[in-house]
Amino acid sequence: MNFDYSDDQKFLKGEARKFLDANCTTARVRGVLDANSSEDGDGKAYDEALWSAVAAQGWLGAAIPEAFGGLGLGHLELCAIAEELGRAVAPIPFASTVYFLAEAVMLAGDEAQKAELLPKIAAGEVIGCVATSEGPGALSAATLKATVEGGRLSGVKLPVTDGDIATVGLVLAKENGKPGLYLVDLTGPGVTREALRTLDPTRDAGRLTFKDAPAQRMGAAGAGLELMEQVFDRAAILLAFEQCGGADKCLEMAKAYALERYAFGRVIASYQAIKHKLADIYVKNELARSNAYYGAWALNTDAPELPLAASAARIAASEAFWFAAKENIQTHGGIGFTWEMDCHLFYKRSRQLALTAGAPRVWKERLVSQLERRNAA
Asked: DSSP of 39-96, one letter per residue?
């Protein structure tokens, strides 16, 4: 079975790389980083010009059907785009809007919700976020505190990636004691926000407080956790491609530096210790890519193996990106951790992406559960 991209998908991936090389340099990323890192910064939460340019490329609607204003290409094409966004550590709310909100609406939204939101997502007029977490600890039906009564949502969600800039939130809350999934207009009444500082200032995060905010349920009553798991499975695979892209870029950076840095009269790439570092990065990257390709197949075909493939892809990609970012810094030596070098941009993003859809520990537990369920069948 061939899991590789088709020629058309490779062409799309190549064009995406050219576009991002020209429009998403590390200087652009640092513009957002510096604005959000300094006390007197302007609080630039994301690169608005890049967001508009990406929307103009049609990437936001890559997997959205043409009937709803998208390109109707499919998830494999979206995976190719995600990989290039990961290489560029793009400082835009692409994942929150496309991997989570758009996927949730396509999965569980009714026709009216699809007609209302999907064209706006494809056009870049909507920024999404997913609000499930309510603080430290794993979320469950027993620990969920946010509630909906009479179509009004009350509760607190934190941290919410892109929560301080999103216009539409995908919120998990209880109604009549049962978890449900709700759409909330974050620009409407009953919603207050507070920006949060995180390890990766190139990605926005916030605390959302709801007090009788109008909320619209998606899917069946009481099916919130099941729907959220399905959305997370889809998002996990797309995030895995972002992580693979970032990990590959880290390997390229480490290799390039090792070939130009001299120590004791030799390039450091000639030393066995450096060779082992680069080889270890390569092995983990290839393992992550294999799992990501398997996940992409399962996502594109809606295969029964999707939950299992998503868990494996999520775990392998999170590990690979973190390891590659860490070893990239080590390969650069004493200057690797300094603010002037770009290595830390990838390390910060590796940590941010590893927590976006649940920590690797949670996904390891899900993987074991999936394997036990399959073996028992």
From this structure: TTS----S-HHHHHHHHHHTGGGSSS-GGGTS----HHHHHHHHHHHHHTT--SSHII
Of 230, 189, 231, nearest to 212 by C-alpha is 189
What pLDDT, on a 0 to 100 scale, did the predictor assign at position 358? 87
CB neighbour burial string for 353-374, b if at least 16 within 10 angstroms, e if fewer: bbbbbbebebbeebbeebeeee
Under-50 pLDDT residues of the chain: 41
Strand partners, 131: 171
Could you tell me the domains of the chain?
Answer: 7-123 (1.10.540.10), 128-222 (2.40.110.10), 225-376 (1.20.140.10)
Question: What's the confidence (pLDDT) of residue 35?
Answer: 86
Q: Which two tokens stand for residue 376?
A: 């028992």
Type of residue found at 29? V
- Which of 287, 251, 286, 284 is CA-nearest to residue 269? 251
* Separation CA 175–CA 85 (nearest Å): 37
DSSP string, 312-359: HHHHHHHHHHHHHHHHHHHHHGGGTTSTTSSHHHHHHHHHHHHHHTS-
Q: Residue-wise over 166-178: b if at least 16 C-beta within 10 A, else e?
A: bbbbbbbbbbeee
Give residue 373's pLDDT. 85
